[in-house]
Amino acid sequence: MTTVNALSEIAALMGDPARASMLSLLMDGRAHTASDLAHNAGITAQTASGHLSRMVEANLLAARAQGRNRFYRLASSEVAHAIESLMALAGTRATPASKSAAWRRDPDLRFCRTCYDHLAGQVGIAVTDSLTRQGHLEPKGPRDWQLTQSGELFCDKLGVDLGTAREASSRHFARQCLDWSERRPHISGALGAAIADTFFRRGWAERLRRSRTVRLTDSGRRALGSHFGATV
User: Fold this and answer.
1) What's the rounded mean pLDDT across residues 210-222?
2) Which end of the chain is more exposed for a tag (fewer CB within 10 A), N or C?
3) CA proximity to 125, closest of 182, 172, 82, 77
4) Are 112 and 208 members of one domain?
C-alpha cells in the first residue's frame, strides 16, 4: 500500500512549477535534452539538473546518455496517466474550456495532441466515442475498456497492430485516461498507442516539433469520417 510519506513526496515533486512545466513538455511522448527542458521551464541548466535528478530517483523520469547529451522522458505510461488526470482535475477549477483564455490561446493543443503515446483532445475523444458508439469498445471496470469481437475486426481492418499491443504485458491494454481539455476519458494503454501509431503511419496525423500538438491531415479528416463516422 502507498504510504502517506510516499504520496506526499510524489505530489511535491510534481507540484513544483518548474518540474510541472518539464513534465508537461514530456507528455509529448518524446525524449528531450536537459537544456530543452530547462528552456521550457524558464530556469537555468544547473537548476534543471537538480530537478531532473530528483525526478529520475523517484521513477517519474527515465534518462539515457547519447553523445554529449542526456535525454529524459517519462518513465512509464502510468506517470503520463497521473499527469493527465491532475491536469483534468485542475481544469475543473477553471472557466469552461470554450470560454477560457487558454482555449483561445492554444486551440490546436485542445483539438489534437499526444498524451504520452496516444491521441487526446477533440480527435482522441472523437475516436473513443466512435468505438464505443459502434459497440467496438465497452467499459471494463471503473478504469479500463475491453475490445469486443466487432472491435477486433474493426482494428484488423484498420491496420491496428493488436498483436504488439497485447504483447505489452507491462502496461494496461485499454485504459480510460481522463482528457484534461474535454473532461471525458479517451483511450490510452497499449491499444491507444497502437491506434495513434496507425494514424501516424498512414499519414492521417503528423507530430509537430517541440510540441504535443498533432496536426490532422486532410486524409486524416477523411478517415475520421469514413472509418469512424466522426467529424471534428
Assistant:
1) 92
2) N
3) 182
4) yes
CATH number at residue 97: 1.10.10.10
pLDDT tens track for 71-86: 999 998 889 888 888 8
Residue with grid cell 491506434, as numbered in its chain: 195
Q: Number of structural domains, the chain? A: 2
Question: What is the model's pLDDT at position 114?
Answer: 92
Count of Cβ atoms closer than 10 Å to residue 13 Cβ = 18
Domain boundary among 55, 77, 103: 103
Residues 26 and 118 in one domain: no
Our CA angle for 167, 171, 48, nearest 5°, is 125
